[in-house]
TrEMBL record:
Species whose genome carries this gene: Nakamurella aerolata
Domain Dyp-type peroxidase N-terminal: 11-164
Domain of life of the source: Bacteria
Co-factor binding comment: Binds 1 heme b (iron(II)-protoporphyrin IX) group non-covalently per subunit.
Enzyme class per UniProt: oxidoreductase
GO BP annotations listed: iron import into cell
Protein name: Deferrochelatase
């Protein structure tokens, strides 16, 4: 059974080869006591160290007159490459815990970006987040359920999302999956083995932060993006391909070649127009057209079943990206939100920005220990 090491210089679940399943959860702290927050982060770290090895909350046996320490549904399942990644929202740095001076400038909320007017407060933000990823859905659910249980009295669940099917590739050699529009997603993503780019665009280093406790960390941006899939399914193929700037079957750019051929945004067709529409998702998001900005995408397809009002399938992309500064996401979303042809078929419903501290190095350490 595959085990991803939990202890390390950096948190797992970022450049880790992307697992198939995800559960994301955002929490509100209910305590006013900074010590209780540290205890929670310590208990989460201890539990995460065990879960990621396929072990339950604690080793001992439970007396018959006490509730079991672990809920039990993970027993015998194994680790399935479980990773648990923890982040801190901007609200954690308000007046409650005396952490005002520790707030990284990069975490300052950027307000509503273009295309994000429909974000719902109840699906947005949170003091803490947990991203659990594994190759088994019950393993990720077990992790989030038990971390939520451990948090009782200190933090409550604010919003959460279950994802199925990775909608990105984070390793060269990992096949490119498809999102619910049916397109290959992750073709030109940053890959874990592109270490120079990963160091440059994903991890926070001394030069990139005003807060030493964030060195070795990264910023997570999440977006729950609903897809209007019934309308999409009625759109004709050539238009779907124009929207992304890629072929639906092979994933090749419309400028020609194969999936991994570098797109040529200047190549024109018989009508003199670029073969890749300037308002296509790819043209607007590509580093060539954004002063070189890159992000590491690590999203998942999701469904919430049926929309109770319209009766339609409620589904979309749970977008997750990692970057050394949320400004990278902001730059891209500002352009996409204003001009992306895809906007006709998507609605941003919620999400958040979280500062993920460096890794937990060994037993006794915890998430963000240097912050306190
Ligand atoms: C590329 C889908 C939202 C950033 C792509 C590609 C697809 C895709 C199919 C082309 C294949 C690839 O290179 O991965 C979607 C869908 C979205 C969505 C279905 C929402 C439902 C976003 C958002 C951002 C973003 C919110 C960032 C703000 C990018 C970037 C690329 C990309 C940076 C790579 C462009 C390149 O270098 O060629 N996306 N995307 N996407 N997307 Fe998205």
């Amino acid at each position: 059974d595959a085990v991803v090491p939990f202890y390390g210089e950096r948190q797992a679940g970022v450049t880790t080869r992307q697992q198939e399943q995800m559960m994301f959860a955002a929490f509100d702290l209910t305590t006013m006591d900074p010590l209780a927050v540290q205890q929670l982060l310590g208990r989460w770290a201890a539990a995460a160290a065990r879960f990621t090895q396929g072990k339950p909350v604690s080793g001992g046996s439970t007396p018959a007159n006490r509730p079991p320490t672990d809920t039990g549904e993970g027993i015998d399942l194994g680790a399935h490459s479980l990773t648990i990644t923890v982040g801190f929202g901007a609200s954690m740095f308000d007046e409650r815990f005396g952490l005002r001076d520790k707030m990284p400038a990069a975490l300052r909320p950027f307000g509503k970006l273009p295309g994000e007017g429909d974000m719902r407060p109840e699906l947005t933000g949170g003091d803490l987040c947990v991203q659990a990823c594994a190759d088994d859905p019950q393993v990720v659910f077990h992790a989030v359920r038990n971390l939520t249980r451990i948090a009782r009295g200190t933090a409550v669940l604010r919003w959460s999302q279950l994802g199925f099917g990775r909608a990105s590739a984070t390793g060269t050699g990992q096949t490119t999956p498809r999102n619910l529009f049916g397109f290959k997603d992750g073709t030109r993503n940053l890959h874990a083995d592109q270490t120079a780019d990963i160091d440059r665009y994903v991890w926070v280093d001394d030069a990139a932060t005003d807060q030493p406790w964030m060195v070795g960390g990264t910023y997570l941006v999440a977006r729950k993006i609903a897809m209007v899939i019934e309308s999409w399914d009625a759109d004709f193929l050539a238009d779907q391909e124009r929207i992304f700037g890629r072929r639906k079957d092979s994933g090749a750019p419309l400028s020609g070649g194969q999936e991994f051929t570098v797109p040529d945004f200047h190549k024109t067709g018989a009508n003199g127009k670029p073969l890749i529409d300037v308002r296509s998702h790819m043209a607007l998001a590509a580093p060539e057209n954004n002063n070189g900005v890159k992000i590491l995408r690590r999203g998942y397809n999701y469904t919430d079943g049926q929309d109770p009002v319209s009766g339609r399938l409620a589904a979309g992309l749970f977008f997750v990206s990692f970057q050394r500064d949320p400004a990278q996401f902001k730059a891209l979303q500002t352009k996409l939100g204003a001009g992306d042809l895809m906007n006709e078929y998507v609605t941003h419903l919620g999400g958040g920005t979280f500062a993920c501290p460096p890794g937990v190095h060994s037993a006794g350490d915890w998430f963000g220990k240097r912050l306190f």
